[in-house]
Amino acid sequence: MVQVRMTVNGREVSGEVEGRTLLVTFLRENLGMTGTHVGCDTAQCGACVVHVDGNSVKSCNMLALEAEGASVATIEGQAAADGTLNRIQQAFQDYHGLQCGFCTPGMVMSAAALLKENPKPTEAEVRHYLEGNICRCTGYHNIVRAIMAASGQDVAVAAE
């Protein structure tokens, strides 16, 4: 067992992990942050997306030890302390960008990374950026609409 320390959603945390422990497992099992989902364990679906030192990563494909000393942001840290949704979360709610909700945390975290990098993406850029995230319910139309709305742009997105 090895001690790992990091800052998660602005809070210093630490824990003992085996060297092979994935970041997603550390977040879920050691810290109780179950908003980050495990969908495939192969970095294909994007349900486990978190931000590590400002970069969007699939936490099922990163060891907890690799996040030693890092700043990690999860879906639990996106809303305000009083529970008020951030603009991306609110847009997902307003534009029905979710159904079962399983992929939603990863989609929101990916959208946050996109909008940080490109505050006014085109519809094509949003669709391209989301290629690493799989939704088995919505068909992406409303997810794209939500992200466009969160960017402050027209939500008239072409049907797929």
TrEMBL record:
SUPFAM superfamilies (UniProt xref): 2Fe-2S ferredoxin-like (SSF54292), CO dehydrogenase ISP C-domain like (SSF47741)
Keywords assigned by UniProt, alphabetized: 2Fe-2S, Iron, Iron-sulfur, Metal-binding, Oxidoreductase
Entry-linked CDD domains: fer2 (cd00207)
Residues of the 2Fe-2S ferredoxin-type domain: 2-78
Species of origin: Seohaeicola zhoushanensis
Single GO molecular function: metal ion binding
InterPro entries with a match to the protein in the record: 2Fe-2S-bd, 2Fe-2S-bd_dom_sf, 2Fe-2S_ferredoxin-like_sf, 2Fe-2S_ferredoxin-type, 2Fe2S_fd_BS, Beta-grasp_dom_sf, Diverse_Oxidoreductases
Protein known as: Carbon monoxide dehydrogenase
PROSITE patterns in the cross-refs: 2FE2S_FER_1 (PS00197), 2FE2S_FER_2 (PS51085)
Lineage: Bacteria, Pseudomonadati, Pseudomonadota, Alphaproteobacteria, Rhodobacterales
